Amino acid sequence: MRYVLQCVVAMAMIAPAVTQTAAPPKSPQAIRLYQEGLRLQENRRSYEAMQKWREATKLDPNLALAWAMLSIVETSPDYAREARDKARYLIEHQPQGGVDDLLVRWFVSRSETDLMYSIQVANDMVSQYPDQKRILCTIGSWYGFQMHQYDRDAALQEAALKVDPNFAPALDELGFAYAHLQRFDRAVEMIKRYSEQSPNEPNAEDSYGEVLRLAGRYDESLEHYHRALKILPGFDSSQRGLGDTYALMGDEKKARDEYEKCSGSGSASTRLDCRKMSIYSYVREGKNEEAAKLLTDFTGQMHSVKRISLELESLIALGLITKKTDAALGYFDQAIAAAKASKTIPKSDRDETVGRVMAYKVRMASANGDTETAQKVQAELEAWAASTKDPNVYAAMRGGRGAILYYQKRYEEAASAIQDDPNDVFSRLLLVRCFEQQNKKDAADVLKGLIFQEHTMDIDLALVQREIKG
Fold it and tell me: What would the pLDDT profile of 73-121 be if each residue is shown by its tens digit?
């Protein structure tokens, strides 16, 4: 499975990385552990990598890059924040200079500052190091993962491959970028090349499985997930991949059986994520009441163990599947309050979550004829977008504006606004409805076809696909 960290790991493996600090590392063993962790993480063995980096920081508490890597992979939000604080302190008091300095500062900025600043730092790295394949790969991966700008991601991965045509992390990332752009032939070609560069690694087979799943080639996808598990039994990503694939195939019982296997082992994050996906399988079956009961319990548990991201996801899911408008808006309000209060979620993620949930409130209130609430929340959303200057929040704001216009039957204006929110599937559904109201059947059919060509696990996508099917 693809994560944005792979290219970051490759970037951090630049040979001089940890030898340029103002205070030389005290322990050669710490350096060895740090590098072993990088190699493990590059192959998606995150839990093992985390253990290596924890050991490295115990041996050398001044190893800034190890703390920075821990700030990303730590499964505990509190520990991740502590690691980020330590990395920030070290980079401020022991600046490394060069790419290492920029890298650690970028890690910290992504969690603590607004998105526009992170974009600026990312672009500065690309400008300063245009021939560094690792930087091109890292920044491209982030554009895809954080910004959903897969065309930009693909362009930067292609640039990295011009520097080194066999650079495995860029091949892996490019395969996913093409898959999200629905250029599946190219996606499979890139992943095939990646697997040739990384033989006998479970992640190569895992990536193959996921790209094939995104292409809707489910049976082939299952084969590759099973191959990954033969290479490394218990490889978390592939075990979950089996559950995801069966869920998309409509075999929710089998999906739950597979999720059960990874909800009892592996890292804490994997166990909890598999539990969440198992609950979502009931939504896919149309068993919303059963799902709501399970989600309510899960939300409470996530709150008690301070897993704020999973708590937020569950609250939002509850809002999306609840039939009563007042109850749904209540869940959304809880999500907004929890996101704003969080000290562990990166600022850009908090801003985007708040903006998106506010847009959901606008859409739901508008759909139920509560014009006053819709207008009030939209005004708050527009103020939020202006204050954050976050492009993801701006997109949500335009989606909210489009929803209001749609339910006012101002379809042409609504379509214009909604097209500024291309990554939200509810906005795309409203765009379909706009086209239908304007007698643009061909355009509506094309957009519906594109929605059904998506094979991701997002619960909002499942709900929209079900609504289109009627």
Answer: 887 778 888 888 898 888 888 766 666 677 777 777 776 666 788 888 8
Q: What is the pLDDT of residue 7?
A: 58
What domains are there in the chain, each with its CATH number? 207-285 (1.25.40.10), 346-470 (1.25.40)
For 229, 260, 462, the CA distances from 245, given in Å and listed in that order, are 15, 14, 13
420: tokens are: 């500024």
Q: Are 81 and 104 in contact (CB under 8 A)?
A: no
DSSP state at residue 224? H
Q: Quick one: which of 202, 192, 264, 222 has its CA closest to 45?
A: 202
Contacts of residue 470, defined as CB under 8 A and 6 or more positions apart, other chains included, come to none
CA distances from 362 to 263, 327, 331, 348, 376 (A): 35, 14, 14, 21, 9
CB distance 196 to 190 below 8 Å: no
SS3 (DSSP) at 264 = coil
* Tokens 């093409």 -> residue: 178
CB 237 within 8 A of CB 259: no
pLDDT in tens, 4-41: 455 554 444 443 344 344 455 468 898 899 889 887 87
Closest C-alpha to 136, from 111, 180, 109, 167:
167
How far is it, in rounded angstroms, from Cα 298 to Cα 287?
16
The token duo for 103 is 């890298």
What is the C-alpha radius of gyration for the chain, rounded to an integer number of angstroms?
Answer: 22
Distance in angstroms (rounded) separating the CA atoms of residues 210 and 241: 7
